[in-house]
Specification:
Elements: H1 38-56, E1 61-62, E2 65-66, E3 68-71, E4 76-79, E5 82-84, H2 89-110, H3 113-117, H4 120-136, H5 139-147, H6 152-177, H7 183-191, H8 197-217, H9 219-225, H10 228-231, E6 242-245, H11 247-250, H12 262-265, H13 275-278, H14 299-311, E7 318-321, H15 323-328, H16 332-337, H17 342-364, E8 368-374, E9 381-383, E10 387-398, E11 404-411, E12 417-419, E13 428-431, E14 436-446, E15 453-463, E16 469-478
Antiparallel strand pairs: 1-2, 3-4, 4-5, 6-7, 8-10, 9-10, 10-14, 11-13, 11-15, 12-14, 15-16
């Protein structure tokens, strides 16, 4: 048996109104307007340069191999004449440090030049925008097309654009994998539908990343995903060259015509055309001052100069300058003198020191490397003829492009003999070009000739072709 209760209506008249606040604001799609000018020409020059290098280098040959190949399966990197092994990781680390310090130096001097002119995100976004403009039309046409209802014409244009994007993205993914797998063999595998699983995955993954980042996310990557935009302020100061708006000259802004008398109207040079906003790839208004979204591409400076030319005003309302130059009215010479300030000099000195050290190390680098590994299964054992022996394995890595012969010897203990089943009578072995070879080696001494314990010995491996030699330390164990 259930108990009935009287339901009373809830009185909400005295309750405060509730409001739902979204933590994420919907971002409007940005339609960058095409522009031309000095900085645009430089940006496209860098796009051509970087893409010729990226797509062209994997096809270059050096001798009988690919000139630049990071062969992860064979655990060696081919960089033109150089052959690097995992033991050469210090060189790759040095290259990364040089790249980071170069970025810091360029940022301290001239802001986000990397972002505006050479960053892959910027480069591929420009290429995808170019493809989009060729298929769908200019900015106004693209906006009308997006607002129009679906039709056969819209479907053809949109489908054609995405098809071109996908083909370009897949070619980019193919080229990327070509740095890790010989690109000619990779091309043959694609044609014959014989790609391996990891090659297929990385071509599709890198292609999808290019398609998504450059085709859809675009400025969102620069604003929210790239960490460089967040810590760039630590490298900026008032003498860093950045894209700036001359507020003293431009304000108060307002509409104007060629007939407007600027002196009588007391109006600034900015005619509030908003073209600087329309050409910005990240959609910011440079007239609001320095913003972390600005990638320093100079597009706003180019379009503003064209407007100034049409109006008959002096160029440079938007330009590359520094905060000190803008606030103190410095000229170009005064601004350039401040480039050699302590921060820049410190970055330059450290960078130069690391570059010199890296190249010096590469110049003094031997043409082969040796690793010595003890046989852990056998500490010491008695051999024929009353000899006590220790067993080792020598890994000889030939970093040259030709087969090399190496002579093996050892020292450190009296009456020490070296024996190997793979070496000839002169204790020499051959290692093919750009290969490594494991050599089993036995060191022998007369039993009882030295006291028990560990004794230091040295392996000496000498190249018979160029007379270089490598010494490696090891330990000879005598049981108690």
């Amino acid at each position: 048996m259930t108990k009935k209760t009287d339901a009373k209506p809830v009185d909400n008249t005295n309750q405060p109104n509730e409001a739902v606040i979204s933590l994420y604001a919907a971002a409007d799609k940005i339609y960058p307007r095409s522009t031309f000018g000095f900085f645009t020409k430089w940006r496209w020059a860098m796009i051509w340069l970087t893409q010729i290098v990226f797509y062209g280098i994997p096809w270059l040959e050096w001798g009988q191999r690919q000139a630049l190949l990071f062969d992860l399966e064979a655990r060696r990197f081919y960089i033109f004449k150089l052959v690097l092994y995992p033991q050469d990781l210090i060189y790759l680390t040095g290259i990364l440090i040089i790249s980071a310090l170069s970025l810091f130096l360029f940022t301290a001097v001239a802001g986000r030049l990397w972002c505006g002119y050479a960053c892959p995100q910027t480069v591929y976004t420009e290429i995808f925008l170019w493809i989009e403009a060729k298929i769908e039309g200019d900015r106004a046409t693209r906006m009308k097309l997006d607002d129009a209802p679906m039709s056969a014409k819209k479907l053809i244009k949109k489908g054609g654009k995405h098809f071109a994007w996908i083909m370009f993205a897949l070619w980019t993914g193919f080229t990327f994998v070509g740095y890790f797998s010989p690109i000619r063999d990779l091309g043959g595998a694609v044609v014959n539908l014989g790609l391996g699983p990891w090659e297929t995955f990385w071509i599709l993954f890198y292609g999808f990343a290019t398609y998504g980042n450059a085709g859809f996310m675009r400025e969102q990557v620069c604003k929210y995903m790239c960490p460089y935009a967040r810590f760039q302020s630590a490298m900026f100061d008032d003498d860093t060259l950045i894209v700036t708006y001359d507020e003293k000259r431009g304000e108060p802004r307002g509409k104007a015509s060629l007939k407007t008398d600027m002196d009588k109207s007391k109006q600034g040079a900015c005619i509030d055309c908003s073209l600087c906003v329309q050409v910005c790839p990240t959609g910011i208004d440079i007239r609001k001052g320095l913003q972390y979204e600005c990638i320093g591409c100079g597009a706003c400076a180019d379009v503003c100069d064209t407007v100034m030319d049409k109006m008959g005003y002096e160029r440079g309302l938007v330009k590359y300058s520094t905060q000190h130059a803008m606030n103190l009215g410095w000229g170009r010479e005064q601004m350039l003198r401040r480039i050699l300030r302590p921060r820049v000099l410190i970055y330059t000195a450290i960078l130069a020191l690391i570059v010199v050290a890296l190249f010096t190390s590469l110049m003094l680098r031997t043409s082969f490397k040796v690793d010595v590994v003890r046989d852990r299964g056998v500490m010491a054992r008695l051999a024929n003829g009353g000899m006590l022996e220790n067993v080792y394995r020598l890994q000889i890595m030939n970093a040259t492009e030709s087969a090399q012969r190496y002579q093996l010897s050892a020292s450190g203990i009296d009456n020490l003999k070296i024996e190997s089943d793979v070496a000839d009578a002169a204790k020499t072995v051959t290692v093919n070009s750009a290969e490594s070879r494991w050599i089993p080696v036995r060191l022998q001494i007369p039993d009882g000739s030295i006291k028990p314990g560990s004794h230091h010995v040295r392996f000496v491996i000498k190249s018979m072709n160029d007379n270089e030699s490598v010494d490696e330390k090891a330990v000879f164990l005598v049981p108690r």
